[in-house]
Design a protein that fits this description.
CATH topology of the largest domain: Glutathione S-transferase Yfyf (Class Pi), Chain A, domain 2
CATH class of the largest domain: Mainly Alpha
Largest sheet: 4 strands, mixed
Oligomer: single chain
Radius of gyration: 21 Å
Number of helices: 12
Structural class: mainly alpha
Shape: globular
CATH architecture of the largest domain: Up-down Bundle
Amino acid sequence: MHVADIQFMLNNVASTVLIGLVNMLALYHNSMSSCSQKIRLALAEKGLDWESRHLNLRAGDAQTPEYLRLNPKGVVPTLEHDGHIVPESSIILEYLEDAFPEHSLRPKDPHDLARVRLWAKRLDEGHHDLATSVLSSGVAFRHQFLSKGREKFEAQNDKVPDPVKRERRREVVLQGLDAQIFKTAIQMWVDLLNDLERFLDQSEWLAGQHYSIADAAYTPYITRLEHLSSLGFLHGRPALTKWYDKVRKRANYEEAIVKWNDETYITLMREKGTEAWPRIEAMIGEFS
């Protein structure tokens, strides 16, 4: 073999390694986090390989100085791509579309694209941090926090950077379904599900006729209702029920959600959700 041929091969190998490094994706995430689930759904749907950096949220992994340097809010997920850090799940979904446009999950029609962003805005401006977090913590996760004793819970909760989220979580963990904000969370769920039902009654997917990042974004929230034994929220909403059946049958659902299910969490949510459902159902009745 000529020297020139050897050099060509070495350059080709070096280029391949460099491309691999440039396209390296790492995700700081948690198995049961709704925001992590929606990023994993998009990654799976787009067929992207990624490195898992799993955080134990109950152990305070998201409040360590090392992680806070990556994500000052102390939340998951955070994406790392070629050494660049991208926080916030809605932003990560858009970033993945920009960085990896192949097999796009973002509509080209401007009206459908506006719908994607309106659905994302709905999650970011209250539904995730208030409605979903309050429902999940008030029903189930409070028992995880309190099992270690109130003093340890208070110490860990004091490390939450956002003072509003810190105080709200404290109230919900200590008071559960009796927290004043819990009924507000139920009303927000009812309002959202009503809007989803109206839209899906006229549309195949959440942004038109094709699966998109909007569908990936909302799938974990209905999944959370299922895990909390609260799919009764979908009663009388046939279009939303049909949509959920479809997303559960997609290959990315198995890869991004089922594969990562933590049975300790699932068991807790199912058992506590079953106990809480009669009271939740009564609250739903007040807003229906």
